[in-house]
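Minutes, project check-in
Item: structure for the 418-residue chain
Input as provided by the requester:
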Amino acid sequence: MSSFKIKLSLFLNYFVFAILLNSVGTVILQVQNNFDISKGSASILEAFKDLSIAITSFLVASYIVRIGYKKAMQIALMLVAIMCFIMPSAGSFLMTKLLFATVGISFALIKVSVFATLGIITKDKKEHLSLMSFLESFFMIGVLAGYFIFGAFVDNDNPRSTAWFNVYYILAGMSLLAFLLLSSTKLDESSVKKADLAESKTLGDDFLGMLKLIILPLVIVFIFCAFFYVLIEQSIMSWLPTFNKDVLQLSTSLSIQMASILSASIALGRFLAGLLLKKFDWLFVLSGCLLLAAILVIITVPLTKDISGSPVTTLSDIPLVAYAFPLIGLFLAPVYPAINSVILSNLPAHKHGSMSGLIVVFSALGGTTGSIITGHIFGAYGGQTAFYFSLIPIAVLVILLFIFKKIQPKSAPATSQH
């Protein structure tokens, strides 16, 4: 089994879905222009994406071992390729809802399969933690690329132009490429399938096994950690393009492209975390990073209050705070891959599919909650208040991480079965 080719395929799959999933911030901005949608109404796109992720994960994750990780990823890639080909000719607010629902369903299959596959191809907890961080880092590189791809199709002179829908032809092609690479890659899933069949004989047993995980104290605390982290990340990521346009007065294309700094900083943060977490205790790294994130919010958000004037259309006129605030991603970055790796490393490999399903479910619920709350606060009280809101879940998450560390077992099963 070629470990390199498998890893390359997983990275490419994540790259494609990074662009699709995190285009929601850009699309939220564009549908306001194209279809005269309010901020509160536009925020529903996050729900179409995240709730479809949550529902699919909940229903499928418990028996995805039986479907097969590779087959599940192939289905996901083909679904989004078809929808992306349809999107430009059927562009409407309804179509964007259907697209994000399909992307959500497909990503649930991808993420559960990718996370579970890591348990097969890694040898120990350290390798698992490191590879998880690098994978999540590459995901953010995909998000970064997405901002520039979408930004290149936006017409600043005609806010109501629908030319940006043509970007989906490119995304359809990328999905097909990822499908072909995966189809040519061999993945030996026999060890986890044998272990799963030894434990349960029916689909009902598989589903019950996933539900039983929820009652474990370590899993309960983890679920809250994942929920609040994604709530923070998505509330900022989904609304940063709109914040740049409405508060910082940037042009539409610059608003989208400048939001890429957040993705770049998260990518860099996760790459560095892959190195730091090999040497330092994860709680020390994560709590320190969250403290720095809170400090950055407190320092930078007040700097956006006195910005006014004509729209900014050139890089030289962009205010410094537009570069500074997105650096919060550098400090938020290590949290998600680290806590995911910790919980998965404390379970046997054949349980990773079910646990990955729970990760995806509660991450999705956190994402849609954060985006909708932020959208309504933004619409009612302005962008500064909306981003100050992030301080509350940051404080809650720090407390939860200490509890998570305290109840973590001193010894845990290996991440893979070789």
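Outcome recorded: The domain at 3-406 is CATH 1.20.1250.20 (Growth Hormone; Chain: A;).
No further action items on this chain.
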